[in-house]
Every structure is written in C-alpha cells, then in structure tokens.
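Retry 2 of 3 after timeout on previous attempt. Resubmitting structure tokens to design endpoint.
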C-alpha cells in the first residue's frame, strides 16, 4: 500500500505572499509530507521567490515539487476527502469538525489504498469563499481563541500537518529515538531485593540521626516502606539514597 503520508495533499488557495509558501513548505516537510499545491496563486513563480526559499529553511525539495492550478477544483480532482480550514461558522455547507476529529477521520479514510485526503487553506486576506468551501466534504476548525481566532495561513498549516502526523504515525514513533545511545542499566527499575535492602539501610540511618525511635516506631516504618515501594525507583536512585544513608550514619557517629 502506498504510504498514507504520500496521499495527503495540502492546498494553499490564492496565496499572495511568497514567504507563506516557503513557510508552508517547511511545515509540510517537518511533518513528513511532500504534496503541496497552490490554487490560483497571485504569481506562478512564488516557489522560486527569494523570500519563499529563505523561509523554507532547507525544504527546497518540497518547494521544487509544488504544483499550481488556476482554480481550487483542479487541485482536488483526485481527492476523495477534502477538509476546508476556516475560522468562521457557515450557515450552509459541509458538516463541521475540529482539527483533531478531522485527523482521525483522515486516518480512517486512508485505510483504503485508493483514497486521498486534502487539507485546504484560504488566502491570507479573506480565507475561503463559500464556493470554495462547497468543493470540500468537511469544514474543519482549529479551536483557537474565539476573540482572536484568525491564524496566519502557514501557522495554521503547521498545526494541521502536526495533527495529521500524530494521527498517522505509530505510537512508538511519537518520541525521538536514540539508536546510538546504549541502554543505561542504572536507569532500569530497581528490583524488590534492592528496595528491601534500601529500606533496611534507610531505617538504620533514621535511627542513627534519632528521627526514628525503634522502641516507639508508631506508623513511621510502614509509611516509609510504602513511600519507597510506590516511588518506582531506578537502580541509580536506590544507590543514591543508600549513599545518603551511609552519610547520615557516618555524620551521626562523628557527632
């Protein structure tokens, strides 16, 4: 099956600022996508503009692949599920959802190998028209501050691309990997034997500094034991606490 990432298209409708095109290319590449289209751009050479190249910050491969079309409908010709990004509620038009719901819907939709998804963004000045929204199957909102909900188009695209990536990747890939770093055995969870040895040492240290009276321990001992048991200590942490115990006992003896 073709990668789901390769079947997600990002469309900037009527863009007028080359910088936003460059920033959009960077956002697309950051999140592992590469299909960026311009619908009715103000200028057909926007991807080659110095400002676009500068703000792409190395994502020149995405800039070079950008395709343009004279109208939005042409960019959506092969698309089976398109989301129109807008901050405004619409009286008429497709059903609305938020971006997280849209990402989940896209993930399910892309389970079929012949399905393709598009995320459609409006122009910088006025967003998408009702006619442009009508070309999509869903309206999608980013739940920003209601008092100031209009995002820069490249910022909106970055948020959308992130949500799409998070929905599509395996949960195991959501944290950075460190293949060149060898596992540190000290970070492994301490064994029950180590915890019990720590507890005995800890009790000895508390007696030495006269914090614990062994003749009248009350509930201090079981409470300390419960604290150490539930702390999820690593072996390094056990060794550190045992070093503290040794220092406490030595200081008490010297005094």
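Retry 2 succeeded. Sequence:
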């Amino acid at each position: 099956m073709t990668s789901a990432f390769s079947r997600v298209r990002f469309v900037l409708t009527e863009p007028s600022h080359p910088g936003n095109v460059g920033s959009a290319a960077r956002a697309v590449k950051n999140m592992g996508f590469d299909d960026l289209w311009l619908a009715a751009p103000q200028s057909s050479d926007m991807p080659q503009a110095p400002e676009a190249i500068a703000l792409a910050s190395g994502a020149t491969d995405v800039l070079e692949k950008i395709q343009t079309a004279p109208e939005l409908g042409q960019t959506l010709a092969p698309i089976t599920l398109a989301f129109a990004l807008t901050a405004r509620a619409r009286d008429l038009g497709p059903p609305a959802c938020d971006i997280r719901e849209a990402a989940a819907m896209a993930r399910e939709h892309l389970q079929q190998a012949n399905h393709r998804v598009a995320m459609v963004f409006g122009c910088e000045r006025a967003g998408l028209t009702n006619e442009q929204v009508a070309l999509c199957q869903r309206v999608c909102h980013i739940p920003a501050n209601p008092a100031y909900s209009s995002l820069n188009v490249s910022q909106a695209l970055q948020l959308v691309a992130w949500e799409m990536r998070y929905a599509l990747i395996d949960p195991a890939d959501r944290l950075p990997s460190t293949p060149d770093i060898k596992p540190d055995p000290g970070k492994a969870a301490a064994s029950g034997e180590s915890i019990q040895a720590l507890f005995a040492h800890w009790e000895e240290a508390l007696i030495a500094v006269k914090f614990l009276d062994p003749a009248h321990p009350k509930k201090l001992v079981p409470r300390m034991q419960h604290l150490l048991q539930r702390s999820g200590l690593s072996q390094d942490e056990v060794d550190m606490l045992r070093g503290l115990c040794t220092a406490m006992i030595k200081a008490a003896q010297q005094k």
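Attempt log closed. The mean pLDDT is 90.
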